[in-house]
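ok here's the first one, seq then struct tokens
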Amino acid sequence: AKYRIKTGDRIVLSIYPPSTSGIEAESIPLKIIYEDEAMLAVDKPAGMVVHPAPGHAKGTLVNALLNHCSDLSGIGGVERPGIVHRLDKDTSGVVLIAKNEIAHRSLASQFKNRKVKKTYLALVRGVVKSASGIIETSIGRHKTNRKKMTATINQGRQAETRYKVLETLGHFSYLQLFPKTGRTHQIRVHLASIHHPVLGDKLYGGLITGPYLMMPRQALHAHRIEINHPVNEQPLVFEAPVPPDINNYLVAYRQNLNP
């Protein structure tokens, strides 16, 4: 313990693979959009949590990933191997995963520096009057409900979301959304702030009841991600098709409006 290292000394280090802290690999089907030696892109279904957390020890995307590929980046921590970014439990769509540290650093840097182009699709309550627009409000933690975020003026973190109306369906609108930033619940909070919450979003006012109005979860889908490959820097585009629950809702309302 008292030895001082001198010039010319040889130091031998043993590097062990990152521990997964007892996280179990589970045989859960994965919808793989793309995979190579550096990364994966998967289509996460609604209802699946991205990584283990209190109350969600099993059945997560990480549990499924460990069964598919045990070699994942450890930079995200023992509970989040390979995870570069997240989607909310009830949001479906594209998620990127890093297989090694080089890929993780590159992907994380692109997200941090806003080099990633993200496109979401959402069904929202009400008729959005402007064909397109930009929502710019800061987002911070709700004062009384710690599970909830809120749009703020002088507090929180700056956030920006562009939107485009694709279709109007009676009392609902179908939107394409382009978040510039990646704050917690950003799209959900921004849409609620302009009084058009995501359909089915219990937390932010999108829940509607009735035999023809039920949406089993928030109708928000991460449809497309554009990013550069973490190793060769080639541009990549990943898309996840509109899931059946949202598509069925669209079809039903189109038929109702055009019998």
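and now the second one, same deal
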Amino acid sequence: MRRVLITGATSGLGREMALQLARQGCRLALTGRRADRLAAVAAEARAAGGDPLPLAGSVSDPADVRRHYAEIREKWGGLDWAILNAGVGDSKNALEFSAENYRWTFATNVFGAANWLEAVLPGMVAAGSGVVAGISSLAGMRGLPNSGSYCASKAALTAMLESTRIDLRGTGVSVVTVCPGFVKSELTDRNDPRKMLFLMETPAGVRCILDGIAQRRPFVHFPWPLSPVMAHIAPVVPCWLWDLAVSPFGRYRKKPYAEPGGARGH
């Protein structure tokens, strides 16, 4: 029975991953800040055939992470997969620049993942097996309007995962970087649909993620055709052309919008 950690499991991608893996009979360590919602997802996972272990707390708190991993080790002996999904996002223009907004975003999106990497990697390396998957975003490929802290955090997460993957070559431990585009969630329900190109339903997006993890693909990105543009073309587009292309998406916002791979609750 596969032992899987999913952080940010209370909603969106995290909840759907828990349910799809529960149908495969997995043991599921589920983390999230909202204990009531975490308990509800655990109940759904149990009803779907999984063996859930709800762990309420924050990925940005190293003490919570150490406590949670100690409980996982005590009950199951370790993990086969660690899916680092917890994330937050905010929509803020640089005219309202806030260093605190960057600290808040990085605390979950970057250091939350780093806290779990520090916890799980020694056991996986010692066992000579395991998969770590980090849910980053296509938004980390280039800067986007009104999304500075989110784009920066996802760029940092992507680079951290890639460096970790390279360092772990030959250990038996694989690192998968997942960069979704827009996937339907609580946050995207608040957005202007005209600005969410190629929006995917949550179950379809999660199937792409889980297939990529199962195949140990180093880089998973979707949906087509947005993903090849953002992953392979956007990084080499000249700045003047990129600015012209994306600036309209930052104008005339009636309400806040989520970035690609948007926040999933932590």
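notes on #2: Confidence is low (pLDDT under 50) at residues 252-266. The first strand starts at residue 3 and ends at 6.
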